[in-house]
Amino acid sequence: MLSFRLTEGDVLILRQLARYRFLRSSHIAALVGRSLDRTNDRLCRLFHAGYVDRPRAQLDYYPTSGSAPMVYALGDLGAQLLSERGAEFANCEWSRKNREAGRPFIEHQLEIVEFHITLERSTRGRSDVRLIHPEEIIASSPERTRKKRNPFALRATISQSEHAHDIAVVPDLVFGLMFPDGSRRCFMVEIDRGTMPISRSDFRQTSFERKMQAYLTAYGQGQHTQQFGWKTFRVLVVTTDQQRARSMIETLQRLNVPQSPGPSLFFFALADELQRNDPLAHNWQDGGGRATRLS
Predict the structure, then answer these.
(1) What pTM value is reported for the model?
(2) Which Pfam families match (predicted)?
(3) For a Cys-Cys bond, which of 36, 97, 103, 232 suits 57, CB 3.0-4.6 Å?
(4) DSSP labels, 88-115
């Protein structure tokens, strides 16, 4: 291979990998504005030079996925370079973390990335709405929030069967939409892959019902205002099929959490529908069964 020279375009690729953790080559091409062939060439060079990794777990599904675009992650040399340019990382052992990442975790992260990139595409070049990224939300939050290890985690104390449960819920993605009049709408996103039980008899065990109750309780206790200065927010649930969405909504409607918006806190959509439609123009279904749009 010819001698490798790092370019500013390569640094942009590394910054995107640091931001999203895992990306397919097709995602990277879209984010940096290059052709897929050119992106693949640079990724190959970055990989052999040690700046990026190819997580081993993805090899598990290549036999069934055919020629799916390769998944990449930031390597130790890439993290070191970004650190020298001012980036701050809590842990620079990226290559070790990449080796330990399992297939379900990688696939979940890629679905989160896919939704985020779809939002970017749907707002790019528009004058009537601007996407507010997670980094901007953190930067404008109170100092005590910015200092937290996970600033987007919401904590709620829930009483169940005469026992108090302290629960933390961490959204998969947080973003906002800014409008020309200065108003904004803020959202937390849950990408549901259909693997978590909707309900369990033991509240101590994880379930989507427990997660929804934690969001409702955190809202009722004003966590969003204390942490981010938000007046309100909504939770977007992207799930696998109509039956699961219906079961979630039925479970949600049985919950009664004081001082919360109730079922209207949640908007539901199916993953395959969002792949075909602009998420801002899509008719989401709120917890009360009403059609609504994000913008």
Answers:
(1) 0.88
(2) Replic_Relax (PF13814)
(3) 103
(4) --S---HHHHHHH--HHHHHHHHHHHHH
Contact 115, 274 (CB under 8 A): yes
Q: Are residues 264 and 128 in the same domain?
A: yes
Kindly state the DSSP code that residue 125 receives in the 8-state scheme: T
Distance CA 160, CA 165 (A): 7
259 token code pair:
């001082």
Collapsing DSSP to helix, strand or coil, 170 comes out as coil
Q: Name 267's bridge partners.
A: 236, 286
Domain that includes residue 31, residue range: 8-101
C-alpha separations of 267 from 108, 127, 154, 257 in Å: 20, 25, 18, 17
Show pLDDT as tens, one digit a residue, over the chain (295 residues). Answer: 456 789 999 999 999 999 899 999 999 998 898 999 999 999 999 999 999 999 887 765 544 445 678 999 999 999 999 989 888 776 667 788 888 888 888 999 999 999 999 999 899 889 999 999 999 999 999 999 998 889 999 998 888 777 788 889 999 999 999 999 999 999 999 999 999 999 998 888 999 999 999 999 999 999 999 999 999 999 999 999 999 999 999 999 999 998 999 999 999 999 999 988 899 999 999 999 999 999 8
CA separation for the pair 27, 114 (Å, rounded): 8
User: Going edge to edge, which strands form the sheet with 71-74?
Assistant: 22-24, 71-74, 52-53
